[in-house]
Amino acid sequence: MQRPTLALNVVMLGPPGAGKGTQAERFARTHGLPKISTGDILREAVVAGTPMGQAATATMDAGELVGDEVMIEIVGERLTRPDTRPGFVLDGFPRTVAQATALDGIMDGRGALVVIDIVVPEEALLRRLAARRICGSCGVNAPVEWIAACGTCGGALVVRTDDGNGIVRERLRVYHRQTRPIVEFYSGRPTFRTIDGNQPPDVVTASMDGAIREVSVGPGEVRA
Ligand code: ADP
């Protein structure tokens, strides 16, 4: 008899600049899963000028968190779509214990969450965020090889509005105060793993793959 295949539901944790977005993107691509980045969803809403985007702009620019209710609604809706049935990679959510608690409710009966916490020392985060550029037109993160223009759409590279000096420090403060407690929330689970993010991106990708394989009992199957 064939065993039912469980979904591969991955949650990426880590401070701003830890490389969550890059690693989430790579993992999602190589495993054929949707990457759900709440930062990207909010930035798209800002660019599109939707009411949600307009309401979130000032909060994001100040480095503060958008309200739990809005975020839970966005992610709850996204996770009802059929493309998330085989699993997903969540980047930027949950960011508070209230969001993590709500996610457990949403996940009821959908299999375990594999939680990957990427750890990077604060000096390295500050250095990375100061150097980070994104495309001013399409918003993608620019890899170091891109000097002045976006390799995808040719747009000019710019500093993200919330990567400015004072705002970065505020985002790190917000991380320690509101997001770090989630690590405690998840750390007792058998599917929680910490990885060292202070290494070249390919090494981080390999250790993340290894960590996720370790908690999986077969391809796409995760021990609850
Ligand atoms: P980072 O580089 O800090 O990981 P993101 O792109 O994930 O940044 O998020 C950018 C901003 O979007 C955050 O500083 C915050 O204002 C808002 N945001 C994203 N995800 C959430 C969330 N889950 N809860 C509250 N606010 C969020």
Question: What distinguishing features does this structure have?
Answer:
224 residues; alpha/beta; five-stranded parallel sheet; two-stranded antiparallel sheet; 9 helices; 9 strands; 46% helix; 16% strand; binds adenosine-5'-diphosphate
Summarize the structure.
The chain has helices at 20-31, 38-48, 51-61, 68-78, 97-107, 122-131, 165-179, 181-187, 201-214; strands at 8-13, 35-37, 87-91, 113-119, 134-135, 157-158, 192-196, 216-218, 221-222.
Descriptive overview:
The chain is an alpha/beta fold and 224 residues long. The chain is built from nine helices and nine strands. The strands form three sheets. A five-stranded parallel sheet has the order 2-3-1-4-7, sandwiched between helices. It has a two-stranded antiparallel sheet with strand order 5-6. Helix 2 crosses helix 3. The longest helix has 15 residues. It is globular and about 45 Å long. The mean pLDDT is 91. Bound molecules: adenosine-5'-diphosphate. Adenosine-5'-diphosphate (ADP) binds next to helix 2 and helix 3. The site of adenosine-5'-diphosphate (ADP) has 18 residues, from helix 2 and helix 3.
Please bin the fraction of helical residues: 40-55%
Class from helix and strand fractions = alpha/beta
**Roughly what is the average pLDDT, rounded to an integer?**
91
Low confidence ranges: none
Strand order of the largest sheet: 2-3-1-4-7
The ligands bound in this entry are:
adenosine-5'-diphosphate
Question: Rg, please?
Answer: 17 Å
Question: Order of SSEs, N→C?
Answer: EHEHHHEHEHEEHHEHEE
Q: Tell me the major beta sheet.
A: 5 strands, parallel
For the secondary structure, the number of strands is 9
**Total number of helices:** 9
Which shape, going by the Cα principal axes?
globular
Strand residue percentage:
15-25%
Span from first to last CA? 21 Å
